[in-house]
Amino acid sequence: MAKIAYVLLCHKDPEAIIQQAERLTAAGDYMAIHFDGRSPASDYQQIRTALKDNPNICFARKRVKCGWGEWSLVQATLYALESAVATFRRATHFYMVSGDCMAIKTAEYAHQLLDSRDCDYIESFDFFESNWIKTGMKEDRLIYRHVFNERKNKRLFDLSHSLQKRLGLTRALPEDMQIQIGSQWWCLRRRTVEWILSFLTERHDVLRFFRTTWIPDETFFQTLVRHLVPTKEIESRTLTLLMFSDYGMPVQFYNDHYDMLMGQDFLFARKISPEAQELKSRLGALYAEQGVEFQISNEGRNLYGFLTKRGRNGLRFAPRFWETESTLGRNRELLIISCKKWHVAKRLIDRLREVSNVPALAYLFDEEGTDMPDLGGIEATLWKRTRHRRALVRMLFDYYETDRLVICLDPSALELMQDFCADRAVTRILQIECSLSDDYLTGHAERIGLAGQQTASAALERLLPTIRNDIQHESDRIRDVGFDHHSLIRESDSNEQIAEQLMPFLALDHDAALTLARTEHLFSD
Known about the structure:
By secondary structure, this protein is α/β, with parallel strands linked by helices. The chain contains 21 helices and 17 strands. Helix 14 (342-355) packs antiparallel against helix 21 (510-517), helix 18 (438-447) packs across helix 19 (457-481) and helix 20 (495-506) packs across helix 21. The longest helix is centred in the last third of the chain and has 25 residues, at 457-481.
């Protein structure tokens, strides 16, 4: 009978990971866990301590700092696979899951399905001939080298890409391989996994190629399986149900989706909403049950497409979510950094990206040119961003697949802060107060149109005290509101004092917070 070794890639919520691991191994299956190297060591230790006595659980031999679209995700998967193959000799199948996946069938049903056909379940479509990629770059993912992360260093990513195109620095694909593409959520037989690991010890050229492709988790395993396994032994589908909106965002499932999920021809579903506690409880109990019969109707994707089309045709029967200004989502944390000197906040979040996996965006409600992902147009202008502020931020949470997000706001944006703090999500505000020299205030006056290069010095002498008072007034107003989660750092504070404020705000340990506090030239003009 089939015995599954689940390969879990995760980066947050240790309690949920522990519960998921215990549920999936209680029926006799196995699990290999890779916990993101950017996530807190204390969370990782909590998971290891809780699961240390479970013989059906092992951990990847090395933690990798993962980034969306990077080779690091594939490397993390390989480390977990190697541990699973070596530890679980009786495992017949290896199934990729994430912390947002939950079983929608019983273990009994899953084992019977895998026993019914000797094959690998992995989406693998011809990269160039298929229309699997709907938007964004296609062949450029492969023929150019990508060493920067688009979500963390978009300017460098775009600059590197454009320079290679301009200079004609293309590269050849592996000659003996037909590149494939598909979902990263696969289920492979033991023999296939062993073939892949053996192949990689011999073909370092293939490893070198995929290390600098963009989003290799959608091409690496898909290509290798097609290269190594006979076509008749490949079922080109995923056993994990996932759907995407018109904006390219994963569709989330809620409490009232239980019956629909039971009828889908999949073993797992992704993503379950953090708010769907009843659904999580029911699905959690389902996996270990015996004798459950499932009536497969498989209408989920068609039904979602039908309802979406009604909206596009003007037949919708409920307001669009951005018109209802709905919540950011329970169990999410919005972290707001408020600083009048924008370059100070930007330096801080640039450094934050290096020491943490928390996504951080600069002044998205203040600067039109802020680096933003493509969210279907809602991000296009400051007017749209501000009008649909909660919808925009909620889409950013979904885009980055995170429950913690950092944004920067100008101190004048008190209304935005109050609106976010009124949401059901937790909103934390870090206020940074900087010294304001006359040179800085003069430059600020010129930027906002209150002065120019030819403004007389006497006029500036009268103007600068007023501007200084206005900025101080903005800062005082934030403190006077009395936000529940408010912290303050000043330029005059020591590194230790700054670190003490950063630790609770960003949920960092002391060393990481001190590294941020020591950011080079943080307060320099």
